[in-house]
Structure formats: C-alpha cells, structure tokens
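Thread: Newbie trying to understand structure tokens

Hi all, I'm a second-year student working on a class project, and my supervisor (Dr. K.) asked me to get a predicted structure for one chain before our next meeting. I've only ever worked with sequences, so writing a 3D structure as a token string is new to me. If someone could post the tokens and maybe explain what I'm looking at, I'd be very grateful. Here's the chain:
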Amino acid sequence: MLGSVVPRLSTPPLRDLSDPAASWGYAFIAFCDLIGWQLDLWQRWLAIHLGELFPDGSPRYRKAIILVARQNGKTVFARLLILYWMFIERVPYVHGTHKDRGEAKKSWREAIDMAESVPLLAAALPPDHARLQISEEDFWNDYGSHYGFSAPNRKAGRGKTTHRALIDELLEHKNRDCWNALIPGMNALADALAVCITNEGDTSSIVLHEEYDAALEAAETSDPETDTFLAAWSAPAGADPEDLEALACANPSLNRPRPNGTGLTDRALLGEAKKAKRAGGRTLAEFKIEMMCMRIDQLDPAIDPELWKNAGTDTPLNLAEHRRALALCFDVSLDGSHATLMAAAMVDGMVHLEVVKRWHGFGCTAALRADLPDLVRTLKPRVLGWYPGGPAAAVTTALAERRGQWPPRRVTVEELRGTEVPAICMGLDDAVKADQVRHPKDPMLDQHVKQTQKLSRGDQWVFVRRGSGPIDGTYAAAGAVHLARTLPPPPPPLAVA
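---
Reply by user tm_fold:
Sure, no problem. This is what the structure looks like when written as tokens:
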C-alpha cells in the first residue's frame, strides 16, 4: 500500500495544470531539483496545484490550507518554499510563524543553514546575511529579500509589509490574534500569499477549523471565485486506525522511501496504531489527529463516539410497556440553564434509554420542579434517582416542601451520592463498550455525550464538560442506566383466582 499522492479533498483547478504555463509550481520543482532537494511525488502535486495561475499569469490563490499527517515532509516543503520565494521570486519580505517562538526560530535557522549549504544559494548571500539579536532576527540575500519570524500572537507581522507568509502548525492557533495581525496586512498586495501547512488539531484549533471549513465548502461547490486553496491528506471520518488504506490517505509518503533512506513504513504506522487502540482514550485520539488527520471532538472522551453512535436505534423500545423495570434519573447543568429527565429499563439483558423531557433556559429548574411530580405519577417508575451533591439538590429541596407531592407514592427515591458517582459514570462507559445500551438518537443527548470528557479521580474518573456546553443529559443517562441495571427483579404478578 503506497501513500496517496493526491489528497482526499482538494480545490479543483480551473484549467489544465499539465501545462507548465498554468502554474508557478513547475518553476518551484525545477528550483528544488537545481539545489539538490528533489521533491516527493505528493509535494510535486502540491506545488503544481498550489501554484495555479490565471491565463493572464496572475496567481489564483492568496491563501492555502494544507493538511497532512506528521513525518511526511511538510516542514522541508515549507523551508524550500521560503527559499524559492527569496531566491527566485525575490519578494521583499517573508514572514514565518510556528507553534511558538522557539520552533519558529528553529525553522528560520534551518532555512539559513540550507541556504548556506547550497553553493548556488550561498553565492547570492552577502558576507553579513543574518541578524541574531533577539526580537530583531533577520535573514537576507543579495536580492533584497528578507525572512523574519515571530510567535503566533497579535504582534505577528505587524509594522511590516508581508508579501509571503508561511504559517506552520496552524492547529496551534487557539484564537485569531495571529491571523488578524498577519493576514489583513497582506491585503494591499495583489500577489500576496499565505501558506498554512499543518496536521489536524483538536477542538481548540479554532482558526484551522474555521478556515478549513470555509475552504472545503468552496471546494465542494467548485466556487470559481475562491482565493483559498485546500489540500487535505486525511483519513475518512470514522476510519479504523489499522485500516492501511485510510492511513495511506493521510500519509502520502507511506512506503515511498526517499533517496536518503527516510520515509514512513506501514510496519511502523500499524505498530503505533495497534498500541493506540490498545491504550484508547487520549492516546487513541491523538493518533487519529496526528497520523490520520481526523478531526476529533475530544482528546479523552468519556464515551467512545463511534460506539455511542453504533448504540443508536431508529426503533426505540416503548418503555411505557416496561414500568416494572423502569428507572428515572434527572440532573441539572452546572449553570442551571439546562435540565434533563432520562428513563431506562433493562429488557432481555439490554438497557434501553429514553429522553423523557428536557428543560432549557436560565431558571428552568422552576419548570422542572413544577413538572416532575406529574411526570413521575404518570410514568410510575420503580425508582427515581438524582445527584444530591450537584445543582439538582435545589430541586429536591423545594419539592420536599410541597406537602403530599414528594416523595411520589410507591416510587423509591435514590440519592446518587459522591462516592457512587465514579462507578455510575464508568458504568455507562462499560455498558456502551459491552454493546448493552440502546438510545433513541436524540440530538440533545448525542450532543451532551459528545461534550463529555473524563476527569480523573485517582484510578477512577467522573464526567466533566468540554467547553461551556451542558452535560446534564449524560449524567442523567448514566444514573438511569445504573439504576436500571441494579434494580432487583420485579415481584411476580399476583395470581388471579
């Protein structure tokens, strides 16, 4: 299995790129050959498509989003591109950023070393061609082309007219400070170009995902007006880490050894994939992100997203027909803006879930207090659970003051206390992994599960939310599943004489 030379997703060209006059990429390839750095096949494809020209010779693209897995040669490609801009295009100023200032300086230093080691390039360097003073670092050649760098922050490129920008590891941009500092400063130049080359990131990679999604939409609709190029070497969503074909989609250099003997092998990748699957959790998520370029919502999800998806059913069980096995549980979000009442019943070894009702909006706990007694009387569960150590405590306290309405008749009310919570959370995960849960594909519940991560407590863990989204639906579901699985068998029905 060879790595895919062509990315799985890319912006379609407007013209035949087999014509050398249609792309500056051919000149870039010739430059790399000339200085003794032959490009990989995927890098040649990238150069030609990135360099697409309009028939009048002007460049089509002003921005590029390039996604490729680690260890495939993207950093070398970026370094060669900078030297091409400096020594062939001879633009006045190139600005580079990386995940932090230290890495940006390392890339800058490596570009200088490469230029100094190539006689053709070294001949175009003046005796004094680099300034090393901190915060004033600069590299220049006889053509008046300069290359500077910065950390990815709000000062990036400010005060300079930037003709070319190389943004390495865009995944590390957690806000738009660097983007807003660097990109608008290039708008006044007709032929400016910003190339972003990166592997995938988690949900904190805000800028990458916003720019990627916009570029993908333009690519999928074949928008001829787009000025952003997209090339994504990535595995399909949901691919198994041991699927070699999926790995080849994200790793274009797979089993394509370079002249110097380096290159990824399927043996190495599959070995890492097996270890990641065995470890699960964060390790597996990081492998999918870094070596498969798959977008993962959470680094350490409490419930495996694929297993949860597989547990959904289009024909949920009617739990009203199983009242003798019915358990209810409710929970309230930390900020009191959302509440959920879940039902569960164990039927033939399978726990079936149902969303009874959800309340949303600040102050929704008042509606929960008003509705809960009637809902319990109507559903007639055997047990009702809640978490006294959380925000739901205020609900039961208020209900207790309503004489004759709480607790409900013939319903056991069970408090799910702090010492039990890790077992309850881990129990839902265990039941999903064992394929013993069925849920109704409710969008709210699916979103709450998606937002739920693990918070370690020694050798155990509990649920914690990712970002600001509520997860009371996950807690209510876990409580209902726990209660349904631990209910004693119902008494046999009374015989009728």
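A couple of things are worth pointing out once you decode it. The chain is about 35% helix and 20% strand. The radius of gyration is 29 Å. Feel free to ask follow-ups in this thread.
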